[in-house]
Design a protein that fits this description.
Chain B: It is an enzyme of class 2 (transferase). Chain B: Its EC number is 2.3.1.234. The complex is a heterodimer of chains A (149) and B (336). Chain A contains 4 helices and 7 strands. Chain A is an alpha/beta fold. Chain A has one domain: Rossmann fold. The two termini of chain A are 16 Å apart. Chain B has 2 domains: 132 residues, Nucleotidyltransferase, domain 5, CATH 3.30.420.40; 168 residues, Nucleotidyltransferase, domain 5 (2-Layer Sandwich), CATH 3.30.420. In chain B, 42% of the residues lie in helices and 18% in strands. Chain B is built from 11 helices and 10 strands. A 5-stranded mixed beta sheet of chain B has the order 3-2-1-4-5, sandwiched between helices. In chain B, helix 5 runs parallel beside helix 7. The two termini of chain B are 28 Å apart. The chains are: A alpha/beta (149), B alpha/beta (336). The interface between A and B is medium-sized, with 22 and 31 residues.
Chain lengths: 149, 336
């Protein structure tokens, strides 16, 4: 596990951007943290690293939003799938041509691939965040080694 | 040649309403049938996707038959079948898309895919003809967008939310206040009784931007409630509702007003589920009363999801012969 302490929103976004630049098709990321921890900020950084031009905003209503970038970005909020067995075609996303980022991933544990990058954001105070990045594959581990603030 | 007086049978199933309608020439509503699932989802405190899909399947043919019967037409009279292809819940969209394709194929009619938001804007054309250039504020559970139009079927997004949609903030704040789903009408009702005492932040973003942000406001309200509960202080629910709503509406009205002025539009259309909000309607009317901009807000039954609006938007595409093939698929993240 790799731990980073970011001093503000900009630094959080920069760390995410570095990850975004290194991601490859079929990479799956889980992104967890409390309300206001900065999940949206982090995803905006990732999107920047993937060269997505459009505004990345909340996928809550439709559960998934797709963005065109260097490779596609699939942004999911699976909060509403709590207590549900529904498979909204996860494999098509996970095995598709892009990168999948999942918020509230605990609700779809049974669908998640083993090889994934687990990201947890914790609020230290108003500005600072502790970001834990746990890679569950060799390629993702290599990616993490190169990260620096 | 496209004949006049075209009839479009339209289908909408992007979220929790199963709807079908027959629309003539994009402006005249012959029938508008909506089977809502709101009471079902209320139990869960929000839309449950697989429950929504199942109910769409149960309701689809009933709603379709009723729409055709009420319009007093037959499938022979219909010129095209239109359907919402996105954005929305994939399982829900698929029910409508497949019904539309099956009907179109069986009766030899063209099928037209419609963007859900284009539908919300065109709901107004069933009441009032468009005056270009126009600006539309689309506010709903999934959208907060300012869309500029110079002509039919051409949409330019000049502002959008950078995080949560306005309706999403309403639903989340309502949930934090333990109010039933959907939260918008509940908060609007309570807000009529309260005062703006909590001074929640108003997010205008950088100068000249028409974008929105409601995530910070949502967090501020939830943090405030949390602090009050921790200190054992009483929460004035009405005042929280008013304070929250004032913040949302101030920003919506101010940004829309600025954009309408800067773009020199002739008409402003307020569309989407949140346009049913009484306070938003009143404040928009107030702000635009002294301008040359004509304000158009559809009646309540056209603000929430319905198929008539999809038929109205499809009429424009019909005249361009912008037909979809039978490969048309549900696209949950469809861009405008």
């Amino acid at each position: 596990m790799y731990k980073f302490t970011t001093i503000n929103e900009n630094e959080t976004q920069r760390l995410a951007k570095q990850i975004g630049e290194k991601l490859m098709p079929n990479d799956v990321l889980t992104l967890d943290g409390d309300l206001g921890a900065g999940k949206t900020t982090f995803t905006k950084g990732l999107a920047e690293g993937l060269a997505v031009k459009r505004t990345v905003n909340s996928p809550t209503y439709t559960i998934v939003k797709e963005y065109k970038g260097r490779i596609p970005l699939y942004h999911m909020d699976v909060y509403r799938l709590e207590d549900s067995e529904e498979d909204i075609g996860f494999d098509d996303y996970f095995n598709g041509e892009g990168v999948t980022v999942i918020e509230w991933s605990q609700y779809i544990l049974e669908f998640l691939p083993e090889e994934r990058l687990q990201i947890n954001i914790e609020k230290i105070d108003e500005e600072r965040r502790e970001i834990k990045v746990t890679p569950h594959s060799d390629h993702l581990n290599e990616l993490c080694k190169e990260l620096k603030l | 040649m496209i004949e006049k007086n075209e009839l479009i049978l339209a289908i909408e199933t992007s979220c929790d309403e199963t709807a079908a309608a027959v629309v003539q020439d994009g402006t005249k509503l012959l029938s508008n049938v909506v089977a809502t699932q709101m009471d079902i989802h209320q139990k869960f405190g929000g839309v449950v996707p697989e429950v929504a899909s199942r109910h769409h399947i149960e309701q689809m043919t009933v709603v379709l038959e009723q729409a055709v019967t009420e319009a007093n037409v037959t499938m022979e009279d219909i010129d095209a079948v239109a359907v919402t292809e996105g954005p929305g819940l994939v399982g829900a969209l698929l029910v409508g898309v497949n019904a539309a394709k099956a009907l179109a194929y069986a009766h030899g009619k063209p099928v037209i895919g419609v963007h859900h938001i284009a539908g919300h804007i065109y709901a107004n054309r069933l009441e009032k003809e468009f005056e270009f250039p126009l600006l539309s504020l689309v506010v709903s559970g999934g959208h907060t967008e300012l869309i500029y139009m110079e002509e039919h079927g051409e949409y330019e997004i000049i502002g959008e939310t950078r995080d949560d949609a306005a309706g999403e903030a309403y639903d989340k704040v309502a949930k934090a206040l333990s109010l039933p789903y959907p939260g918008g009408p509940q908060i609007d009702r309570l807000a009529q009784e309260g005062k703006d005492t909590y001074n929640f932040p108003r997010s205008y973003l950088e100068e000249g931007s028409y974008d929105f942000s409601f995530s910070g406001l949502k967090t501020a309200v939830i943090n405030k409630l949390h602090h009050l509960r921790q200190k054992g202080e009483e929460i004035d629910v009405e005042n929280v509702a008013t304070s929250f709503q004032e913040s949302v509406i101030d920003v919506l009205v101010d940004k829309t007003y600025d954009a309408a002025k800067d773009y020199g539009v002739k008409q402003l259309i307020v569309a989407g589920g949140v346009s049913a909000n009484k306070t938003l309607r009143a404040r928009m009317e107030q702000r635009f009363a002294e301008t040359d901009v004509e304000l158009a807000i559809p009646p309540l039954y056209l603000c929430t999801d319905n198929a008539a609006m999809i038929g109205a938007a499809a009429s424009v595409e019909y005249h361009k012969q912008n037909y979809a093939s039978l490969n048309l698929n549900a696209n949950p993240g469809l861009m405008m």
